[in-house]
Amino acid sequence: MRGVADAVARYHDLLSDELAGESQTHLDDQLRRRDLYFGERPLCTVLRPRFLSQEQYRFLQTRIGALLRAFRAAHRAALADDAVLGQFRLEDWERAIVRDDAGLSESSPLSRMDAFFAGPGGLAITEYNAETPAGPAYNDVLTDVFLTFPAMRQFEREWDVRALPSRHHTLNALLESYHAWSGLRTSPRIAILDWPEVPTQSEFRLFQDYFERHGLECAIADPRAVEYRDRKLWVDGKPADLIYKRVLLHELVSRMGLDNPVLRAVRDRAVCMVNPPACKVLHKKASLAVLSDERNAHLFDHEARGAIAEHVPWTRVVEERRTTFDGREIDLVPWTAEHKDDLVLKPNDEYGGKGIVLGWEVAPDAWQSALRTALATPYIVQRRIALEREDYPSFVEGRVVIAQRMVDTAPYVGHGEFVDGCLTRLSTAALLNVTAGGGSQVPTFVIERR
Fold first, then answer.
1. pLDDT computed for residue 434 by the predictor
2. Strand blocks (E) in 232-387
3. What pLDDT was estimated at residue 38?
4. pLDDT at residue 446 in the model
5. Are 241 and 189 a contacting pair, CB within 8 Å?
6. How far is CA 286 from the centre of its chain?
């Protein structure tokens, strides 16, 4: 939009080599002081935040809201009908636990959409992280850092800048879930559970500090170090009331088995876990295939069908079947083999870009090999979308260098109903993912000319 383009141009004009050098020094210092690293890599490598207009952010909230109603309808249908549930391609153990009543009415109190603004007025949703969305604490601390950049101080003389904080949304969803689950208004003891080697440990520490500053006791723990006894889940020698689950369910089960202390405590209603096991249904990448598939149109009302048509790229589970593409019937597997330059293959349940094959970037024999893998292991095939690109400045060898980056728009979702905050990731590669090593995170600001 013109207003955003004007704001970007003005910010870049203000960013002289001298100010860029000051900003880079400030950024490097703050990254070290605040432990803003993803593993050993700095979380941010550019000197401008993401700017959205008020109209863009409102559009994002409205359209994602319409899609979320479709996801909820698909989730309800899956739990009520084994035929629909089968389309999500859950493993046997997953099917066994998603219907367990964990005491929460919502399957994903915390979630995040991965999307791209695609052309004028367009928005394309490529994934729904309904299990363990990362980044809210990183986002908020980066927001504080960028607001004190030298160029930002001058920029705010001409432009109103509104931050989109995210940590409060995480804490509110955790507390609301716990209070609904327990029927109590007391403050829970929180346990953040994940493996000690994951690169997001620094974010767990940011959350721990944030929770404790709000009067809540919080422990960070390896799931293998907890105990379930006397109908309590013991973490660091004390019972935990609420699990902020950052460990992925499939990793928890693969390392510790289905009868592990965490899931036993959840099944016995001895501890509240956010997100609960039911989140696994929509977290599957096949959830977009369920929405997109013509055979499921009856599951959605008129508004939801319109939102799906506008914002969900054509997506199918890879299998031998006939289906439709742009209104015409196709034989899915041979058609996929012949149209690699327009398609992406994604494993049904992976993260960090693992296993994703971009058809236009691989040779035909590599595409055929990937398709054979996709037939043997649950995968989806998805239509290629146009990726949004923006200019971002960095400081290289004493001067400002402005280069195009691809931009991922990933709004945070509260209670599976509304958008509250937004993660932005940048990359010079088509696979936009910080975990995959090809990206940088920046804070997002809504701007308006003063």
1. 43
2. 232-235, 238-240, 242-245, 272-274, 315-317, 322-325, 328-331, 343-347, 357-358, 379-383
3. 86
4. 98
5. yes
6. 16
